[in-house]
Amino acid sequence: MPGKVPVKTMPAPAIPADVPADVVATGQLIPAIERIKIFSDVQWEEFVLEWADSLRDEYDRVERCGGAGDMGRDVIAICKGDNSIWDNYQCKHYKNPLAPSDIWVELGKLVYYTKLEYYTYPRRYFFIAPQGAGTRLSNLLRNPDQLRTQLKQNWEKNCLKGITTTTEIELNAELTDYLNQLDFSIFEAKPPLRLIDEHAKTRWYVARFGGGLPPRPPIDVPPTHPTQHEVIYLRQLLDAYGDHLHRQVVDLGDISMRIDLQEHFYDSRLEFYSAESLRNFSRDTLPPGEFEKLQEEIQSGIKDDVRADYEDGYRRVLSVIKSARFLQLTNHALINRLSIRDRGGVCHQLANENKVRWVK
Length: 360
What we know:
The protein is α/β, with parallel strands linked by helices. About 45% of the residues lie in helices and about 5% in strands. It has helices at about 20-25, 30-35, 40-50, 105-115, 135-140, 145-160, 175-180, 190-200, 205-210, 230-245, 260-285, 290-305, 315-325, 340-350; strands at about 60-65, 75-80, 85-90, 125-130, 185-190. The longest helix is centred in the last third of the chain and has 27 residues, at about 260-285.
């Protein structure tokens, strides 16, 4: 009998020695430079709009015009100090680096619509693409005169029927004279890595690309004298102390003999300022509304405790905040940056907004 043919076994794939829990749950994080390549056209324009938020020191406002009737303007940015000055960010989500053929119709739209004074000529004009500009286009953008010449050469092929679907736009003598007067040094392509780096400074980055929130900055110590912003929740606390003592409490001097209440008052201010710092942290690192969602979750979780019967308002404060410290809030974006002190602070924020009352 012939001998058995040995069976070759495939080598086992190399498995990392340590696999983090978050990788098991969600898989390996896709680098931002790769993720932008799979965005839809709409997501790409939204990303550019988010990125422009990092330029708020330069611009008074940023608007998205993309869609039918945008006349060659996807995202426009209005400069501070002079609202007649603006920059255009033209979004192109192609699988390859931009080539000259990708931009002729956009330049044609700019020439045509500014000639008709539908809008003014921009200060700067950026092409924004996930793969950036190819070598040919990059070289051309650095040569304004050559860019102008090639636009005229490519007008009939790309712009004659491409600017608008309702009519053909010929490059006649009048339009040519206007084109020759325009500043063609305003055009450039934005490198995608620079976009990502600047987008990382905005509140939109983590929601768009993941990777976790940065560490929280140190929490401010409450000022010695309460501010006007604290009036409502502190008044509610003093009323709760009065309800507990069965007498009116106007200010801290009225509880000078009760060290426990004074300590509670001080701790409550620490909690409030901790929650305020979390609000600011959320404002800087997450899209709008995330902190308000946290407040709503905590308010929903403490409602029954607020409604319950207590001997007095101070007992209600103690019980409600104790419950807030043990609420399950595992699904919220801020959960890994949420401290015990923040939970009590959110209760005081709710009291400061008259959404919670300690004395019935």
